[in-house]
Amino acid sequence: MCLAIPAEVVELTPNDMARCRVGKSDTYVDVSTMLLESPAELGDYLIVHAGFALRKLDFQEAQETLRLLRQMANINEETPGAF
Predict the structure, then answer these.
(1) What angle do CA 34, 68, 38 make, to 5 degrees?
(2) Do the beta carbons of residue 72 and residue 8 sit within 8 Å?
């Protein structure tokens, strides 16, 4: 199973690419923005899956999704095999 995750655009690079930060972590991903309906901008939150930005999220939606993913990770650490 694969999850699409919210990531914040921290740098725009040539050829419809963006460098994005996942949550508040030190994890960065380089993603293609070619599938987006409108160009990505610095600070945008994107749903990223398999190296592609699928759509933009507003800030609140991105934060709520990240909170839920953290909550699931914490539950899984407390109860291995829960998911």
Answers:
(1) 20
(2) no
- Given a cut of 80, whether residue 76 has pLDDT beyond it is no
pTM for this predicted structure:
0.80
* Residues present in the chain in total: 83
| Residue with token string 């990531």 | 7
39, 36, 76, 52: which is closest to 4 by C-alpha? Answer: 52
Closest CA to 37 of 49, 58, 53, 48: 53
For the chain, the distance separating the N- and C-terminal CA atoms, rounded to the nearest angstrom, is: 11
The three-class DSSP label of residue 14 is coil
